[in-house]
Known about the structure:
By secondary structure, the protein is α+β, with helices and mostly antiparallel strands.
Amino acid sequence: xxxxxxxxxxxxxxxxxxxxxxxxxxQPNTQAKSAVKVVWRQKMTRSFYTINQSKAKxxxxxxxxxxxxxxxxxxxSHKTFTAYYHQKLKVNxxxxxxxxxxxxxxxxxxxxxxxxxxxxxxxxxxxxNSIIGATVSSQSQLMSYINAAPDLDxxxxxxxxxxxxxxxxxTTLSQQYNLAQFASSGxxxxxxxxIYVADNRLNSYVNTxxxxxxxxxxxxxxxxxxxxxxxxxxxxxxxxxxKWDGLFSxxxxxxxxxxxxxxNYANNNLATSSxxxxxxxxxxxQASSLLDLTNTLLNKLRINYQLQYLTLESKYNNSxxxxxxxxxxxxxxxxxxxxxxxxxxxRQNYDSQVSALRQAVKDAYVQEQPAISQASTTNYWTTVIMxxxxxxxxxxxxxxxxxxxxxxxxxxxDATPSPVKYAWTxxxxxxxxxxxxxxxxxxxxxxxxxxxxILGYW
Length: 458
């Protein structure tokens, strides 16, 4: 079973682009445009929602800063959504709370939705309408339960059947959730495997992978063994001509030593770290405040100019004295010159401070790059090992790149054959983060492993 090299986008430094309205000649009339400002954005306890049909008839889900509409809420009025993040936005001097939600079944949809458009599902009701202890009297009834669950993710209904259901429908369940027997006999004894790490350079990655699988499954599934007492070996392999990173073969996990020892191989798959995110958020807030202040100053300057101009213009029109008119014309000319100079000074000050903020962004990336590179390398190889341990548990690949068990294709060359629910050649969640950016198991990874245990694959 192989893990192929993924596509690694480089760290992209996005230049901040800020603008202020251009004022026309001596009688400007441009007003500062209202902006959407992020006050805060945080993770939230996952909870489940449906669309509030009475309020969201013409509502939409949006991208993060309401830049574009993602989908119309009324088209998903009967879907259940999980909320992962919430943010407070300042829009036209008013504050609103938005939730980042993803649909739980069917055609996937995700985006930021104003919380008043959502209706929370009481915690006592399971989001996927799971039925613990459901009876299965036929293949068609089993498929109705499978079709009601999220794609490739066995919910509590699937994990809560009577024992005889799993023996009777093992083949169907295996194919519907991409499961098979990959571990050799004896790797798992009483649902537990002891791992011998043959190269100490792999120790930290293996230990982290073990901790994350054990924590997710709520039991001691993997532990570190020794050269004389183990059931599964993890080692480096000089696979210089191969294109895989990790390979599972019965009772051995091999890691491509050429790729593993290349310091640049896996250090560019993270664009940010938590520290960098905090710095960039602070800089973004400074830039937003600077823009607001600059537009306020320009607006005040424009209004003062217009009032003084109209006053002088009125005096000029009401005067019949040539000398007085000449004096007023000189005052108008001086007023215009003074206005242009002050306008220019405000804009130059803005440009100077924006330039400093752009440099601060670059400096932040430079300062955090070593930590980002280390985190990238650590998370990448931890994920590779988690992926291979997943094969040991009986998990074949999925088309979801957020899963640790993701593969870009259902029929990777030389991969161990396995029955699959359907074929794929591209990710089904291309907008989601790759699993190796955080080395985190998804609920789909964990639920499939639980079903694999019930089916006897580990």
